[in-house]
């Protein structure tokens, strides 16, 4: 997972995760745009608010999301615009549902307001100030008043009464859990007892996991959806963070991973020094020849199996068969060999499942001397365009010390881009995740 600072209409922070499994390869991006968090995935037709994604994965409580990201009050303050993304529109309405008489029998009345908001996300002082302000300013009468309210950019309420213009200044001072006591101090309000409804994403009608999935279903591209499963659920399960498995239908691991991404985005927003550097060697991965050959072999093998399966389905689907079916003749024995030889001879690396189409992947080894052969075998060729006149990727990084040779680089447009491994560099192989996970537990 890497954090980049991209100049998109100013600066936009995003956390990017490239996932690669045996079946699929995807790239998940969580970006921060105008103070709000969105998910960008090519399986969706548009960017999705991250809180809707969390609800679709079963985490319906905003408070749980905030606590999973971190207990630092700054995290909740940064996440507040994302939570409010669907909660407020320009002209929402709230009604004074009834007028309660205080138990002491005086003339002060208490207005019971039906706000579309869970109280545990309100600041107690801000809520009390708002109710007190409304009680003082609204004129007395037998009929119920009608309010129009909204939230401006500074986090303050603008309330317009049916009788008189009321402008409140109730700042959302915190997002933590706050319990409303049965009695509040008597300062013109009297006895206040309220039950706030927990409705999130109110103007979109997204309150539960099912409603979030129904909201995402039209936005999921049909190119991935299979005949048996359609909609957003298979996209969230298989393509969204494909490296994190879903076991027994539980998206808990994906929710934790998203919370980690959100925390890193917020840390980068609060402190630009925590931003990742694209040129840092620790943020790079080398595609070795063995990995590429194994990927090509896997693609050729599965392509052969799919061709045999299609032929078998075609023959077995006939209403009458005169002879016993034998799949052996349809197994093309040299298809894998021909595919490997074609790739090594032409240098065109083509993997259909991952849509990888690269040119010039193979070269003739130069054996002019031992040093020349060693330097050719340890050469690193980047995917960066050599014609671009950018100094950042070409510059010498301190993190290259001991791993990349600072001198062995060609001249011309490839200077600084084509590098060589140092003589003492040790390349490790992949390890299985199972033993590491069991050791961590």
UniProtKB/TrEMBL annotation:
One cellular component term from this protein's GO annotations in UniProt: DNA-directed RNA polymerase complex
Enzyme class: transferase
Superkingdom of this protein's organism: Eukaryota
Nucleotidyltransferase found in the keyword field: yes
BP GO terms, sorted: DNA-templated transcription
Keywords for this protein: DNA-directed RNA polymerase, Nucleotidyltransferase, Transcription, Transferase
Domain RNA polymerase Rpb2: 12-94, 197-287, 363-427
Catalysed reactions listed for this entry: RNA(n) + a ribonucleoside 5'-triphosphate = RNA(n+1) + diphosphate
Molecular function in Gene Ontology: DNA binding; DNA-directed RNA polymerase activity; ribonucleoside binding
EC number of the protein: 2.7.7.6
Pfam families: RNA_pol_Rpb2_2 (PF04561), RNA_pol_Rpb2_3 (PF04565)
Tagged with keyword Isomerase: no
Listed SUPFAM superfamilies: beta and beta-prime subunits of DNA dependent RNA-polymerase
PANTHER family: DNA-DIRECTED RNA POLYMERASE I SUBUNIT 2
Family indicated by similarity: Belongs to the RNA polymerase beta chain family.
Name of the protein this chain belongs to: DNA-directed RNA polymerase
Source organism of the structure: Quercus lobata
